[in-house]
Amino acid sequence: LFLPSFQDLFGVSMVVPLMNLHIKSLGASHTVAGIIGSLYGIMQLFSSTFVVSSNTTFLRRQYSLLACILLSALGYFLLGTSTSVFLFAISRVPVGIFKHTLSISKALLSDLVSERDRPLVMGHFNAASSVGFILGPVVGGYLTELEDGFYQTAFICASIFLLNAGLVWMLPWSEENTGNREHQPSNKGTDRFSAKANHDLHLKSAPSGALASDSLFQSPWIQGATVLKRIKGIACSDLWDIFLVRLLMSVAILLYYSNFSLALEERFGVKPLFAGYLMSYSSALGVLAGCLLGPITRFYQHNTYRMLLHSSTLTCTLILLYASALSVWMVILSSTFLAFSTTIGRTCIIDLELTIGGNEASGTLLGVGQSVTSVGRIVAPLLSGIAQEFSPCGPPSLGVGLALVAILIMNMNEQKYRSHGNVKLKDQ
Question: Per the database record, which ranges form the Major facilitator superfamily (MFS) profile domain (predicted)?
Fold first, then answer.
């Protein structure tokens, strides 16, 4: 399962940074590209309940993983044949609905290992995925330099998913693999919940894993109403300001990356290969930032609020630096420090939610937080497309405005955070 997870993100990260360049070459406007990106996010948000949460047994998860890999391969194969905007949009449908491969893999891992070993195994799984995301943009940038490079990249990605399907098919197809749970029947619900709580790389909507096993047969309308009800609950909760800060900062960062390769080409005339190197460089620095969280939190005396405020302010400043950059070196500088500020901010906002919300509701809070991020992934492509109609610097400039609003909200509610005492970062 570690090898398919590495290859999964390796293949995806080859293609995704080049999509805006490709759809522009097909004659689509930035707004149309943004609408297609938003529709993809909507499909991910609503299909996650149907595809991921309904698989409650080990064997069903294996078959579901195999089906999702094959249908995702179909989507990337169609992307490799997309010679028009319509075909491009069609190719995103199977991927939008069924690209939940990493989430199901994590659920399978939770079945295969004991509860004591699960954090270590999940950490290794995330590390394998991260390495794929570091290497993919470089390979994709190199391939796109070739004639018909995007189409070759998409076909290679589809081939990688077919290879993953073969690897998954080679897994032992037996319920006997869940022997860890047979000895711990009372923890079955807890383990299932833990697997769902770890769905952090894609758009998730199940907040606490409390869906019934027959949710597979629920109509899309019922599932849609469930998601909308959850969003309403966020707006009416006591933590609305924290979730709003998370939404604004998520959209701001997504706007920074939304048209990264295309903007660099339009503003500085650099090739997609350079953008691939830069994105891989940022991803590697993000991993390093995660390793440095311990010393940084000790420097801040474990005050999560101050860390979040300062990291958000730094993120806002770096996005502004990128938006006003006059040379590629300023872009490299902003990307370097942004990898650190976003990693720190992402960790702090989650810890702040759990500290103020209370440990007894940690599962629900984690799920709701993922739903907030999902909404940001839907909104950001549309905003990016509209802003880019005016200028290549439009999306990051809009991101600066949203980040400023988030910082203002944090300052206005400073007393609320301080009323909980020193908000300390929990051990990860």
Answer: 1-418
Measured CA distances, 141 to 131, 152, 221, 322, 325 (Å): 16, 12, 41, 21, 22
Q: What architecture (CATH level 2) is domain 225-427?
A: Up-down Bundle (1.20)
Task: Compute how many other C-beta atoms are within 10 angstroms of the C-beta atom of residue 397.
Answer: 18
How many helices (H) and strands (E) are present in the chain, helices listed first?
20, 0
**Residue 7 DSSP SS3:** helix
pLDDT digits (tens, 9 = 90+) for 182-233: 444 444 443 433 333 343 333 333 333 333 334 434 455 665 566 566 656 6
Q: How far is CA 402 from CA 232, 292, 321, 349, 368, in A?
A: 21, 27, 15, 16, 21
Domain ranges of the chain: 1-171, 225-427
Angle between helix 220-236 and helix 362-388 axes, rounded to 10 deg? 100
Task: Give which of 366, 408, 45, 418 is closest to 241, Cα–Cα.
Answer: 408
Dist CA 52 CA 196 (whole Å): 9
Q: Which runs of E-coded beta strand occur in 250-295?
A: none
**Residue 404 pLDDT grade (very low, low, confident, very high; cuts 50, 70, 90):** very high
How many whole angstroms separate alpha carbon 122 and alpha carbon 143? 32
CA distances for 100 relative to 69, 171, 403, 423, angstroms: 9, 18, 29, 34
Tell me the CATH class for 1-171: mainly alpha
What's the rounded mean pLDDT across residues 15-25?
Answer: 88
CA nearest neighbour of 54 among 403, 63, 102: 63
Number of other CB atoms surrounding residue 141 within 10 Å: 25
User: Residue-wise over 103-113: b if at least 16 C-beta within 10 A, else e?
Assistant: bbbbbbbbbbb
Question: Which residues in 332-356 are b (16+ Cβ under 10 Å) and which e?
Answer: bebbebbbbbbbbbbbbbbbbbbbb
Contact predicate 142/274, CB 8 Å: no
